[in-house]
Amino acid sequence: MKQFSQLLENLLFSPRRNDKLAHLVSWLRAASGDSRGFGVAAITGDLNLPHVKGKMIRDLASSATDEVLFALSYDFVGDLAETVSLLWPKSDVPLNSEFSIEDIVSRLQTASRKEAEILMRHWLDHMPQTQKWALLKMATGGLRVGVSARLMRLAIAEAFDAAVEEIEEVWPLITPPYHDLFAWLEGQAERPSAEGRSVFRPLMLAHPLEESDQQKYDLAQFHIEWKWDGARVQLAASEEGVKLFSRSGDDISATFPELVQPLGWQGVLDGELLAGTPDCLGSFNDLQQRLNRKGASKSQMAKQPVFMRCYDILQSGQTDVRHLPLKERKPLLEEVAHQLPQTHFDISEAVEAKGWEELTILRDQCRDNPLIEGVMLKDKEGSYQLGRIKGQWFKWKRDPLEADLVVLYAQRGHGKRSSLYSDFTLAAWTDTETGPALVPVAKAYSGFTDAELRKLDKFVRDHTTQKFGPVREVEPKLVVQIAFDSIHRSPRHKSGVAMRFPRFHAIRWDKDCEDAAHLSELEQLLT
């Protein structure tokens, strides 16, 4: 645990990506056994300790310290692990820094809820403060040290002198503490095989199209299609059955059972999950009613149907076709599309444009169809590769919508933002029986620089009018220009509307709050 706690501390205080990568590589080479595997799982979010939850930790802290002091400290610090590790009483028993991650995880995974509580109390009593913090971070799953699963896989590849593409390929086949992975990387076993398995394959991603790219590339070299406003998915069918994966590789088959019925075909398809049917598309808001659910009833599937719009094929039967150029993969995809149920699958049709000027017009017209976010450009000669490959795939999204809104509430963030007010509730004007009033229409926590965040934090502290637990109500004096992708009806919100991906575009320190947008103006933008 000593090595792991030092790693987490190094990661937390290393803002640069390359520095984080170096710390991960160093730790991977120094750690060993199941402690290394479970440490990797904790960082990638794949470690499951079902009986250790935030409520247990809060209850433990409240019983070991003054309850009021803990509540006030937690509110100020904003991070549960840091608060508890700092407040936990020092034990008269000599500290023991030899607790291993392997022992901790193994015991927690087999413990009952009551046993897990006893174990956690014991470790907190006998660990140094930094190790307490690391234990709590690991056990509750909220590391927040700025390391993605992708960065961890890059670190593993560098630590063992392997290709990250191969690490990505085998990742869906392994589970913590990753015995098969490390045995292969250390030359003690064969590489895990996906043959006959319905597993996730790493996705190819697109770069945003810059204005300079239009002068750099000939449009004729690209296959053009619409960028649909849905959720990126991958379908894998094999002897093992049919599975549907999210863009991050999570198995979402149970959420969309209608798409994973036996197909009579095997292979891997890349595409977009959309609401409705191929003949009658629904909105993204309709799709949200089905997302992030554990399952779907027959009535839900009937009322809120979904389908997959396919735009690439990665594997046909047992043959990997990712090495083929797109112009050869597209005909294969068209052949497959005819074999799939037409009610739940179709293909993304090509868009024709004779030049950049014509494509610009088509892209600008996307706003007329809220289901289209823009256009995609894919090199006809390009193979299907992992990640973003320069010059291969481009996305050219329509310009965002904008609105001037008033900051109404603020809340502190998490991780490195735990001491700063960084999550904002924004409001527009509406007419009431007693006159104009502000009503919340969006929440935003991105789009500003670190310097701007410090100014925003100071504004919140200087203009707080009421406190509601961690939330601060502020004087309605600050106007923010918000950019957002779309806006739709939402009966769950008091305003009746909800914005898609709102983010700060500019802070209008110069503007009076009376000049902010009216709800009726936003309603004119409804999709």
Rg is 26 Å
Uncertain runs with pLDDT below 50, 5 residues or more? none
Question: Shape from CA axes?
Answer: globular
Mean pLDDT: 90
**What's the helix count?**
19
How many angstroms separate the termini?
A: 52 Å
Characterize the biggest β-sheet.
Answer: 7 strands, mixed
- Compute the number of strand runs: 22
Structural class by secondary-structure content:
alpha+beta
Tell me roughly what share of residues is in helical segments: 25-40%
Determine the strand fraction and express it as a percent band: 25-35%
Please give a quick description of this structure:
This protein is of the alpha+beta class. It is globular.
How would you describe this protein?
The chain has 527 residues and is an alpha+beta fold. Helices cover 35% and strands 25% of the residues. It is built from 19 helices and 22 strands. Strands 4, 5, 6, 7, 8, 9 and 10 form a 7-stranded mixed β-sheet that branches. Strands 14, 15, 16, 17, 18, 19 and 22 form a 7-stranded antiparallel β-sheet that branches. A hairpin with a 2-residue loop joins strand 4 (231-238) and strand 5. The longest helix is centred in the first third of the chain and has 14 residues, at 17-30. The radius of gyration is 26 Å and the shape is globular. The protein starts with a helix and ends with a helix. The relative contact order is 0.09.
